[in-house]
Amino acid sequence: MNRKQFLKTLLGASLAAAWFAGSASAADTIKVGILHSLSGTMAISETSLKDVALMTIDEINASGGVMGKKLEAVVVDPASNWPLFAEKARGLLSQDKVAVVFGCWTSVSRKSVLPVFKELNGLLFYPVQYEGEELEKNVFYTGAAPNQQAIPAVEYLMSKEGGGAKRWVLLGTDYVYPRTTNKILRAFLKSKGVDEKDIDEVYTPFGHSDYQTIVANIKKFAAGGKTAVVSTINGDSNVPFYKELGNAGLKATDVPVVAFSVGEEELRGVDTKPLVGHLAAWNYFQSIKNPVNAEFIKKWKAYAKAKGLPNADTVVTNDPMEATYIGIHMWKQAVEKAKTTDVDKVIAAVGGQTFKAPSGFTIKMDEKNHHLHKPVFIGEIKADGQFNVVWKTPGPVRAQPWSPFIAGNDKKKDVPEGM
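The structure assignment produced for this chain is given below.
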């Protein structure tokens, strides 16, 4: 063999070795997608979900990964742009070849990506409370359905313990989640004998910041009888809304507000002293005392400091973060049960999975309806931005994806289409 042939052979061997090493490296990891808005109006809520997902992935990798393989996160930013969610989801599934996606917050973002997940047979874990009226083979819903948040909250406010509200302001951001939730709540209130004139429904666009007139109108409406506000405002609009409540001197003892999209993270940007006593309904609060939650909070605070996250000294946990944490661990357990990341086999393995959650309960994924059985907590805002739990269910509640207060839902099956 002459020198030229030798060099050619050596080069070929080197290239082959490099290709093999690259292939082996790729085979040694499992790619998972993280699809959350890191900019735009929803960044206030979604950025922490991206971070807690990365923390959970690090935790799983440190304990040996999944089937002996490390998880490799692919993070994208759909920038609070609903069509961009679909584009980014398609890229994660078709180009990055992720095994699963953890993401979305608003229902409009989830509705945007659904056709992509169905077309490409991808798998989405959705971690936020929502309006129900949906059950998809390719989605697992780890947030609350209406009977695990909205309905119990309104029942509480109607009760003597909750103040005995007779009139209702349904105030939300103008998109599918608030409108559908309020359709359910309106039907529920009417079933309880509430008159049409005692229900006021108001919507504002994403990013809305001027709540002076709306809050003034709430004060006028409340003059007609004991009134409560049900808030489905999403994103950074919560900051000016709560500031205006404080400016107007509208206290919880006058007109209590119960929020479904405001937790510890959103309150970090607000002076909470004027908001003391207003309410939120969730399936988890940071203030819940138990060893699992104490460890979860400790891990999150340590992670925030280690990664240099913004305002690392004041980070908090919240409900969608817990739901993200549960979802990732349940997916891991399902993959190990199925012994593959094949989507159809993993879907079959997720049902029935359990996980000891920071809420203090062992949470189960329903065997049929792709929703978690979750406890319900109602908390009052405290001056430090945390919540004092004033009401809770004795244990986890099974989700009802199809609300019984919507006509025709009694004929809908509690099993995803295509299963």
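Interim note for the steering committee: DSSP finds twelve helices and 15 strands in the chain. The chain has a mean pLDDT of 93.
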